Structures are given as C-alpha cells and as structure tokens.
Amino acid sequence: MSGSLHCGIVLDMKKIIVLMGGQGVGKGTFARMLCETHPFKHIETGALLRESAKTNTKIADIMARGELVPEEDLLSLVSENINTDQDIILDGFPRTTEQAKWLVNNYADKADIHVIYLDVPEETMIQRIQKRIREGGGRADDANIDTIKRRLNIFWTVTIPAINWLKNVPNIKFSDVDVKGDVNDNITMIIKALEDK
Ligand code: AMP
After folding, report:
1. 18 Cβ below 6 A of ligand 1
2. 57 pLDDT tier (thresholds 50, 70, 90)
3. How far is the CA of 136 from the centre of ligand 1 (A)?
4. Residue 146 pLDDT > 90
5. pLDDT by residue (tens digit) across 154-167?
6. 22 lines ligand 1 (CB under 6 A)
7. CA distances from 25 to 63, 127, 130 (A)
8. What pTM, to 2 d.p., does this model score?
9. CB of 25 closer than 6 A to ligand 1?
10. Residue 119: exposure state from Cβ atoms within 10 A (0-12, 13-18, ≥19)
11. Which residue owns the Cα nearest ligand 1 atom 1?
12. Is the CB of 141 inside a 6 Å radius of any atom of ligand 1?
C-alpha cells in the first residue's frame, strides 16, 4: 500500500475502492461481498438518496424519473459521509466527470484510490435489472421501462466519459474487470484486481 511521509514517519494511506458500472451490474452486491472480507465503510449514494427522498420530494421526483441528482446535493452528501480514517467502498459515486474530478482533487493525496470498472454489455445490465424486479426489489426507478432506459442512456453518455477520464489519472489505480459471468467468479476477479495493483 502507498504511504506518505510526515515528519519522517511513513503513514499508511487508507483505501478508497470505487465501484463503477452501469445499472444492475451488481455494485451493491460486490460491495457487500467485499465488506465480508474487510471492515470497509460502504458508502452507497443511491441508498443514501433513497433515504433523503423519503422527506425530500425534489430528490424523490428526480430519482423516479431516472435522472441524476444535482451535483451540489451529491457532493455535500458524499463529503458528510467520507472519512479517510478508514477504508471505504464508494458505490454509485462518482457518476459524472465533475464528481470524478472532485474525488481526485480532494482525496487522491489522502487515500489510495482504486477504481474498479465493472464491465458488462448493456444486455447483461438489462437482464440483471429484470432479475432484480422479479426478485421483488421494489425500487421505484425499476418500475418503469422509460426510467430504466433513461438511466442506461445516462450511464453511456455521462458516466462512461467519467470512467475514461479516471482511467488516465496518473496517481490513482484503475482496473477494468469483466463481470459478465457467475457472481463467485466475478468477486474472485475483483479481489485479484485489488491485490494485483
Ligand atoms: P443507484 O441505486 O446507484 O442505481 O442510484 C439510484 C438513483 O440515485 C440514480 O438513478 C440517481 O437518480 C441517484 N444517484 C445515485 N448516485 C448518484 C450520483 N453519484 N450522482 C447523481 N445521482 C445519483
């Protein structure tokens, strides 16, 4: 793990693992599996926002339409929850290039950032969202086909450019992991990617 030099003492930096990928790819599932192997703090922006949406109709409406919540709401939510005294998994953040730049500008010197791009084709995302619906996840933004299409479109047009930007940042780690297959094989590959770099 990388360290930084303070007054002659080498301090280990905490890790920020960033799980990025399209809707339904399994970010939450993989985050929970990683939490079973190590005491990470799991910061899931979608879950935090679903909680805010219970009392904030503006956020509830944006989420129900499948659109992105405005940057200022996101950045204050994440800064309230992020704390580089412990290892963290970010799940659902960043989703835009502005959020990615904010993360790198504020945290690349304080933590060892490793971005894992959970790479699957769109048809796999759709199959996994359908499975989540069949299993009764009950998410308002899974209930409507137009909302699902809007979220997928935002992924390709807004989040993929953020992923491509992060790929070229020199002081963070980046791994592209193909997670089309079985969940146990996928988590093994994710753990290997985290250990290899
Ligand atoms: P998720 O559970 O990650 O699929 O997120 C559900 C919804 O929360 C998204 O469709 C967005 O409306 C909102 N959301 C979650 N994370 C972000 C983010 N990083 N930026 C903007 N909106 C977000």
Report:
1. no
2. very high
3. 19
4. no
5. 999 999 999 999 99
6. no
7. 18, 9, 11
8. 0.92
9. no
10. middle
11. 46
12. yes
| Residue 21 CB–ligand 1 contact under 6 Å | no
Nearest to 43 by CA among 59, 56, 32: 32
Alpha carbons within 13 angstroms on the beta-carbon side of residue 55 total 3
Q: Which amino acid appears at position 107 of this protein?
A: Y
Structure tokens given for 121: 């084709």
